[in-house]
Amino acid sequence: MISEEYFFERNAYLEKRIPEMEQKLAASNAPPQKKMTYQYSLFRETYQHLMIRYSLGDDVLTLDVYFERILTALEKYRNIAVEAAKPSQYIFPKFSEFEDYVVSMWLISLAIVLNINEAKFIRLIDCIGNAGEDTLFERLVAARVKSRSLGSHLAFPGVYQSLYKAIDATEPERSQLVCQFLIEWYGNMKSTYWYDCHKGPEGGGFFGYWSLEVAGVVKAFGIDDSAFCDLAHYPRFSANRSHEFEK
What is the pTM assigned to this prediction? Predict the structure, then answer.
């Protein structure tokens, strides 16, 4: 069981930890490779912090400040990576990597749900790259900007086919497809670093199991969520919702 107290404690930790990491990186003379790794850890902490705040019940209109910190951390990571990485070296994100893809879907969905302005939206998709590598991601991008190819395939059709099909479906199939995706979502996340983290010592760094990609699709394509708004893992981004304090 994850208690409300855990979320408050985790939030307090990240409120202190993130500025400390930012300051340490700003003053660091470490080699670019080491700074790259540490900056990626900072980036990961920033998006976890936003999800902690959401799990605590923050209104969606207050989350944009946390998104700005995420975007800044990601940009700094990419800048360091360009300097540090060898041509063949892995740099986040690669859509061939499932976890990278999921986090990228979270970020683009947050940008849509939070109605991030166009300049920040462009900054985000420039950082993520992978143009044309996944048609679901590109449909979300195209809801805001029209400058990229839609692509022709899903990077992970076994997981994301039902959510993608929901975009162009009509009711009641549309709601049924989203319901199917949400019901299967957590089990499909088994290969991610955060799967079952709530079972770890002292909460294991748990930040909430939220399918942000569903929220992005719902907002971008005007899907009625009344049939699935109470399903586990669906972030409604409204005040009238349940917290995710128990697992």
Answer: 0.94
